[in-house]
Amino acid sequence: MFALLIQAVFTACYATVIPEHRYAWMIFQLFGQCCFTWVTTLAYVSSSLFVPLEELGVSAGLIGTFRSAGGSVGNAIFSTIMTSIVNKKLGPNIAEAAISHGYSPAGLAVLIPAVIENAVGVPFAFAKTNATAAVIAATGEAFKDTYAYAFRRVFLSTLPFGIIGLVAAWFVKDPSHLLNNHIAVHQERDVITGERYIDEKQTEARPVGA
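RESULT FIELD:
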């Protein structure tokens, strides 16, 4: 639960450092991402200790399945949030920035695609426009701010999933008392070697009253 709490809090905190605070962004990612391995390891350890040996494969497989499904669903949700915000706000924000710096509204149909192409690295993207250096700088800033706004909403939307994870973790049994050599000895002697299975078969075959 502590690992999930750190992961949820610091992932949501990404929203506070976009787009200007680069060092804070790296520090928050250190805490937000490192917990993934921590949580995954604890999940597999708990699973392996609380299920019978013959069900270890099913248990590990289910964990992997839910991880994969959760990642797919999460990516779909977050991509939808970001795409919907960008599609709604990017064009108007670029137009507003251009017009406020003296650009003619008649040329926006050419300018907006040029700003997007320039942002993704297309050379000479503004060649077909008459945009000044001030317009280029302002529209580039509007592009960055729009995506920053969208990513902030994405990071904040991770909080409900973090809360769901914390609630689920509350019901996970604590395996600490099983992490000892005594359990390992019993598993090796009675299960892996098959002695318990042999004893049970001999008991079943023994006549009644014997």
